[in-house]
Class I adenylate-forming enzyme family protein
Amino acid sequence: MTFTDYVFEKSKYLNSIAVINKEEYRYKEIFLKVKSIGNMLKDKDLNNENSILLIGENSVFFIESYFGIIDSGVICVPINPSFTAEHINYIIDSLHIKIIFVQKKLLKKLNSFIRKGIEILTEEDIDNLPMIKEKFKEVKKEDVAVILFTSGSTSIPKGVMLTHDNLIYNTNSIIEYLSLKEEDRVEVVLPFYYCYGTSLLHTHFRVGGSLVINNKFMFPETVLEDINEYRCTGFAGVPSTFQILLKKSSIKDTKLPSLRYITQAGGRMANVFIEELLDVLQGVDIFIMYGQTEATSRLSYLPPRLLKEKMGSIGKGIPGTELKVVGKDGQEVLPGEIGEIVAKGGNIMKGYFNDKDETNKVLKNGYLYTGDLGTVDEEGYIYIMGREKNIIKSGGNRISPKEIEDTIIELEEVLECAVVGVDDEIMGEAVKAFVVLNNKNFTNKDIINHCKNKLPSYKLPKYIEVVDNLPKNSSGKVLVGVLKESR
């Protein structure tokens, strides 16, 4: 059984609404298109180690292509459309990509670096595919279904390999603790190329629920309008999503009678905003969650009934997943002690694509070592204390400081550069660059303009501070902790 078979097992012949994106799309028609795409790909000379790139914003085209690619038994690689050409080229070359599904509106960007021999498929190409007799293709549960590329500790994106079984396992767990039913309808503002966004797609399609796609979050009032117009029961966001709604919408004065629950992940949200949500969304279940792409999406949740009592906690492991905090000796820490959060379960990735060294660093003794530092209370509830790695989490994005440092140091006027994440009440963390200049006439605006030509918008420094020198230890290593404290 492919993950696609699992997702559509109960809903493939339903005439009920699956997606609302200006128009209504029903399960039966989406499933037929998924199978058409799957059958078309099965006719090609592909195997379960081949990969197909998928580039698109949230849309029915993305959904049909995503499930169709997985149905064919090959690996689907959805990527952020704002990735730089360098990153996309790296992915294309590393995976030997021969087929790319791309939304027509994004085709112009892709045309600048597509090489001969790569087949491009848009909405127009899949709209008129014939529905022929389904072709069977054997897929093992340990076969990779999806590779999600995420920035790691270097500027080279890391490909997280998730199997059909990983996706099924995590989907079942999330459905269980959120008590999702066919009647549930979630409004989606999170991108589907992000594991949190795809988890919304996976879970609601599995139970026969529905999704409302909103690609206009720059106008936050539309979120509230959609929830009420379409009677959405659920909404999901990263910390900045809710902080923007609290600060830049009328949510405090708007009644949302259909809303049953909201979920938050993608970084720690300040307690002050959780308290505001509790006050504003009385009667709505608020799930504070924790996860990683390496864990398919979700690792833990805090039951809404404990939100006030355990404020700031990420809760405990989701159903079927063991989550604990261990010290350097591998033993669980005592309450109040700090250690690294580790996880074990069927949702843990197969590994990083083509990167055995990085895989071995995080998959040890049957556990995923998350790189996040935490502690536990007397009842075993986990609290994140910080991150062992220096990855910056801003608005749900994982950002590598090294990539930004390498970009800034390209400038002749810059002698040294160090980038850190600093607290930001909207984005959770913001990017701050400390630079040492050899040209005092060079300005922050010059640095930003250079970065705009090299980096996607979410990686641009929000703050730049010019310093005389960077603090270093005796080995010449920059003391990042000192910089963070000096912010």
